[in-house]
Design a protein that fits this description.
Blueprint: H1 2-20, E1 51-55, E2 63-67, H2 116-135, H3 139-149, H4 159-174, H5 178-187, H6 189-192, H7 199-215, H8 219-231, H9 239-256, H10 259-273, H11 278-294, H12 298-305, H13 311-324, H14 329-342, H15 347-363, H16 367-379, H17 387-393, H18 399-416, H19 424-433, H20 439-452, H21 456-472, H22 477-485, H23 498-510, H24 514-521, H25 533-546, H26 550-560, H27 563-568, E3 570-572, E4 575-577, H28 581-586, H29 600-615, H30 619-631, H31 636-652, H32 656-667, H33 676-691, H34 695-708, H35 712-740
Antiparallel strand pairs: 1-2, 3-4
Length: about 750
């Protein structure tokens, strides 16, 4: 009887522990049933898999992952759908699955001490708020919300963090922020490597990064890292994950157009895995079809694509039929037009069918429509078309291809009018005459002159007219940016007119592309019309510094304080302007400014840019600029500030004695009062003295501050520093005694 009671108690305890752990039955993928299980088992047995799917609206059933809590009963209503089509399906998706023994689970003893039901409820509410912001077309705000609310990584129990981290990556995938995904996964590499993180969950993040690199067309890196994953895979990695990595390699081969490598890899993959079902099967059939199109085996490609009910499959069928000659270019263009009319707010699907239309226009020798369609594709910030589709279509989506189309159309239009090459005036006149009625022809003629004219003046004027036409037709500056900064036809940015570069500088900064802005304005010494030279060069210096060109930025700042620059940028009554020497003689220079110097307001702006150099550790450069600025000023207030900032640089360079000296000079008020600046500078001087080992001097400064400070919090900090001095003195004495022995 005792034995029976013991067994009953044991079973009851076991049942209770299972319920407390939130044990859940694995949910099938994409509506998968037991009878429809795919050949390759995609359930990673090593994973916590506490993630649901972030589904999209549409017939493709493509998904992005979403972190959701494991619940004990199904939700009362289905998850809300996102408002627009999500990016292409991730290469591998996490699966909801049973928790295994030893996997991290939430309980009341975890570091955050939040009961599992409360933690789950709070997380679900946050995720609901994030999804609502996405539905309201505010994904950037949703991401900001996520960053603010995501809990810190907990080494003992990373499960909560994993929920949030996967939600972060899913949102970045939706926003197509591939660079951020790559950077984020790399930053969290150590956290993901913890033995507390299941292998399947870790691999999901690795696959998300690989897909991001694919989108960024970093094919060499993707191949290298995927091969390393395959070669170093442990026994915990399941066959589904291994199959995913092999499909990634096949995708890279397809995107690169290396047909032979693709054939070999596909043949081996087919031998190992056979036919696949569900999402894996769809991807596999699409990969096979794209290879068959590249091999010009169009009939077989169409047969495979007809088994797939996706918009990409439909587009590839049209492409294959066009290439096979079974449908005319005009027929394909009509079909694409009908498809585009039915698309609502789906940029990726729209771009895909526009590309099919572009290929049809090129096949039909319709150069005007080809230019129009390619301009549309290049006007988007992101070209949402995979490299394998471009390989199948055979028409590149880049600025060089558009320039080639322009040249083709421009030469054809000139030939029709009997114009001779080299007769720039006649070509320019023709372009001007059709400027309004036939903008595509006008752009093409200006493009020919931009690249082929032997006169620099004609080239620059034609480029500006080309840009003006693009802007007047409400086309994106992204198109202009690609034409002039991402084309081999433009050998150097110095060939681009200054007015165009000013325009692209503003656009690049607006888009957050600091490096492109820095490249564009690197040698633009003169400001745009109507903008002060001082402000323009200050902006130029800041852009160079932010882009990592520290020395070039410092050179611009140094040049701004040269006598030549200051004479051309004369200050008259506090107003900056380029004036004659006679005008300067009639006016008084602003107080506190040396002759040919800069105003206090300008000095403050100048300092803000020098602080950028300090912030990135460029202390020698900043010290040089502080010295130069000090020589141009007689302003006592500014000089006091400069002593302080120079001291900060010397302190960072571990020159503590010099730093303390400058801090003390900075502390002296012109009015000989104990103002806030005095308190701050004296405190920093005492800290530098402490670091320099001058304990008695440091103590005296701290004691002095303690005697004149009323703030309780500051007094507490000062007392802590005094205790630190005492401790350091004791350690120093002990070390000295040991050395004597």
């Amino acid at each position: 009887m005792k034995k029976l009671n013991f067994i009953s108690i044991f079973l009851l305890m076991l049942f209770s522990s299972i319920m407390a752990a939130g044990f859940a039955v694995a949910a099938p993928l994409h509506g998968e049933t037991a009878s429809d299980k795919q050949t390759v088992d995609t359930t990673d047995k090593s994973s916590t898999h506490a993630f649901d799917k972030w589904r999209e609206d549409g017939n493709e059933k493509q998904t992005l992952p979403e972190n959701k809590a494991v619940v004990r009963k199904p939700p009362e209503k289905p998850p809300e759908k996102l408002p627009e089509k999500l990016p292409e399906k991730p290469l591998e998706e996490p699966v909801a699955g049973n928790k295994l023994e030893g996997e991290p689970t939430l309980d009341n003893d975890q570091a955050d001490e939040i009961p599992i039901d409360e933690a789950t409820e709070a997380r679900d509410q946050h995720f609901k708020n994030i999804d609502e912001l996405v539905q309201l077309r505010a994904p950037g705000l949703a991401y900001s919300y996520l960053q603010r609310e995501q809990p810190a990584y907990n080494r003992q129990n990373p499960l909560q963090w994993l929920y949030w981290e996967q939600k972060r990556i899913a949102l970045l995938q939706y926003m197509r922020k591939w660079q951020l995904i790559n950077r984020r996964v790399l930053e969290q590499k150590e956290n993901l490597s913890s033995f507390k993180v299941a292998t399947g969950d870790r691999n999901w993040f690795l696959n998300a990064r690989l897909r991001a690199l694919l989108e960024l067309k970093q094919y060499v890196l993707v191949l290298s890292e995927t091969r390393q994953l395959l070669w170093n895979a442990s026994s915990l990695v399941n066959s589904g994950t291994l199959a995913t990595w092999r499909r990634i390699i096949i995708q890279v081969y397809l995107n690169q157009g290396t047909v032979k490598d693709t054939q070999i890899a596909m043949r081996r993959y087919q031998q190992d895995y056979g036919a696949l079902k569900n999402e894996d099967g769809v991807l596999w059939l699409q990969l096979q079809a794209q290879l068959l199109i590249q091999l010009k085996q169009y009939k077989e490609a169409i047969e495979k694509l007809k088994k797939i009910e996706t918009s990409q499959a439909h587009a590839l069928i049209l492409l294959a039929e066009l290439k096979a000659g079974s449908r005319s270019p005009s027929d394909v263009l009509d079909s694409v037009q009908l498809e585009l009319v039915s698309i609502n707010d789906d940029a990726e699907r729209t771009a895909l069918f526009q590309y099919v239309a572009l290929v049809a226009a090129v096949e039909g020798d319709d150069i005007k429509r080809s230019i129009f369609l390619l301009e549309n594709l290049l006007s988007d910030k992101n070209v949402n078309i995979s490299g394998s589709v471009v390989q199948a279509g055979g028409v590149k989506i880049d600025a060089d291809t558009l320039w080639q189309f322009y040249l083709q159309a421009g030469n054809k239009a000139a030939n029709n009018k009997g114009l001779l090459r080299g007769d720039d005036v006649s070509w320019y006149t023709l372009a001007s005459n059709v400027y309004l009625d036939e903008p595509v022809i006008a752009k093409s003629l200006f493009a020919v002159l931009s690249l082929k004219s032997k006169k620099a003046e004609t080239r620059e004027q034609s480029m500006m007219q080309l840009v003006s036409l693009i802007e007047s037709n409400d086309q994106s500056l992204q198109l202009v940016n690609r034409l002039f900064t991402a084309s081999k036809k433009i050998r150097h940015l110095s060939l681009v007119p200054a007015k165009v570069r000013y325009l692209l500088v503003d656009y690049s900064l607006l888009q957050g592309d600091v490096q492109n802005a820095a490249d564009l304005m690197a040698d633009l010494n003169q400001p745009p019309e109507g903008q002060p030279k001082f402000d323009w060069n200050l902006r130029r210096a800041r852009v160079l510094i932010l882009s990592g060109s520290f020395k070039q930025g410092a050179d611009v700042l140094r040049e701004m304080l040269s006598p030549e620059f200051l004479q051309s940028e004369t200050v008259v009554n506090g107003v900056v302007g380029e004036v004659s020497e006679a005008a300067v003689a009639e006016k008084n220079v602003s107080p506190g400014v040396k002759s040919g110097g800069i105003t206090s307001d300008q000095a403050d702006k100048y300092l803000q840019v020098v602080f950028d150099l300090q912030a990135v550790g460029q202390y020698p450069l900043s010290l040089d600029l502080f010295d130069l600025l000090q020589r141009t000023q007689d302003d006592v207030r500014l000089e006091r500030e400069l002593y302080f900032w120079k001291a900060e640089s010397y302190h960072a360079l571990a020159q503590y004695s010099l730093a303390a000296y400058l801090f003390l000079k900075s502390s002296v008020s012109p009015d000989h009062v104990y103002d806030p600046w005095y308190h701050t500078a004296t405190f920093r001087a005492a800290e530098s003295l402490l670091e320099a080992g001058m304990y008695e001097d440091a103590r005296q400064r701290f004691l002095h501050l303690l005697s004149i400070t009323d703030n309780v919090a500051r007094k507490s900090v000062i007392r802590q520093r005094l205790q630190k001095i005492q401790l350091k003195e004791q350690l120093s004495l002990k070390k000295t005694a040991e050395n004597v022995k």
